[in-house]
Amino acid sequence: MIFSSSSALALALGLASVADGAALHGRASDGCGQAHNFTGSTQTFSLESGGRTRSYRLHLPAGYDGSPRPLLLAFHGAGNEPEAFEAETRFSDPAVNPDMIAVYPAGVHVRLPPPCRDGSR
Question: Across-strand partners of 101?
């Protein structure tokens, strides 16, 4: 299987972020143990953070039963969207990722000003 450079980077970062997640967090999150009606698919959710409404796509593997699973965070680059990045990376495809929960957060679409002549911002 061939990945684009952005997909390979997302995979590497995602795998690094889940490598020892259970050991870092001493308690279960509020969602652990709750029933979920969209196993094997992806849904879009939102939350309030820093005065903004942030959206994200959440994929649960087909066999998800509410037990702890590794979490893969897939951050898209500038100009991309979570839906497109999900399709590009295929982290929601059971052939690529049969067991991990995948989250695709949406960016905030903030553009940086162009650099100054001296290279600063």
Answer: 71
Amino acid at 49: S
- 59 SS3 class: strand
Cα radius of gyration rounded to whole Å, the chain? 16
75-117 pLDDT tens trace: 988 778 999 999 999 999 999 999 999 999 998 766 667 777 7
Domain containing 59 equals: 35-109
Q: What is the pTM of this model?
A: 0.66
Confirm if 36 and 55 have CB atoms less than 8 A apart. Answer: no
Distance between CA 8 and CA 108 in Å, rounded? 23
CATH of the domain at 78: 3.40.50.1820
